[in-house]
Amino acid sequence: MVNAHYTKDLQELFVKAPALKDRIEYTLWFFPEVINIKFGRASRSAYYDGGTGTVRLTKISSNYVIGHEITHFLQDEAHFNGKTLPKGERQCDLFLFARSPALVADFWKAGDNSYIGWALDIGGLRSVYSREEGQAMIFEVCREAVARYNRGPCHYVSWAEKRINENIAGRLKDRGL
Questions:
Q1: How many CB atoms sit inside 10 A of residue 153's CB?
Q2: Dihedral of the CA atoms 52, 58, 59, 62 (nearest 10)?
């Protein structure tokens, strides 16, 4: 069971945006290795505060954004008391997306921006994959990329980006687009 500490300013925000707390609790379910974590309020955009080990969120932070910032916490050897993940924004997204299709950025409706998404054919993805299919495909590719990483040194992030784009291109070709 995770011990999530919420700063006073974030608790005050929950009064105006109760769904944010629900999204945090839902997202934390995908992080069983997290025992203690601190959440605070961000004024403009969400970020991970490595100085204090605090995940800072806005009232509109999506499950993807919350998960992305929690994954930064897992990259922080100064605050996370477990096996840390490789550092970097693209690595952060990849390890997040490999947890569940539900945590893959919503490139369809929510307009989430992700660091891996910058390397993808998002227009093609939207045109040939439903949200559920696309998130499942990205999840599977990222799971395989994490398995490749675990087997030894490799270019697992660029491999995943290339493989996702190949899947999109294959569907576009099959549909004559």
A1: 7
A2: -100
Measured CA to CA, the distance from residue 167 to residue 139 in angstroms comes to: 13
pLDDT (tens digit, 9 = 90+) per residue, 142-157?
A: 999 999 999 998 999 9
Q: Is the pLDDT of residue 67 over 90?
A: yes
Interval 80-108: pLDDT, tens: 999 999 999 999 999 999 999 999 998 98
85 phi/psi in degrees, rounded to 5: -95, 160
- Per-residue buried b or exposed e for 49-79, using 16+ beta carbons within 10 Å of the residue's own CB: beeeebbbbbeebbbbbbbbbbbbbbbeeeb
Measure the CA–CA gap between 59 and 154, rounded to whole angstroms.
38
User: pLDDT at residue 132 above 80?
Assistant: yes
Residue 91's nearest CA partner among 66, 108, 74, 109 is 74
Q: For the full predicted model, state whether its pTM sits above 0.70.
A: yes
- Residue 144, H or E segment: helix 131-151
Cβ neighbours of residue 159 closer than 8 Å, sequence gap 6 or more = 145, 148
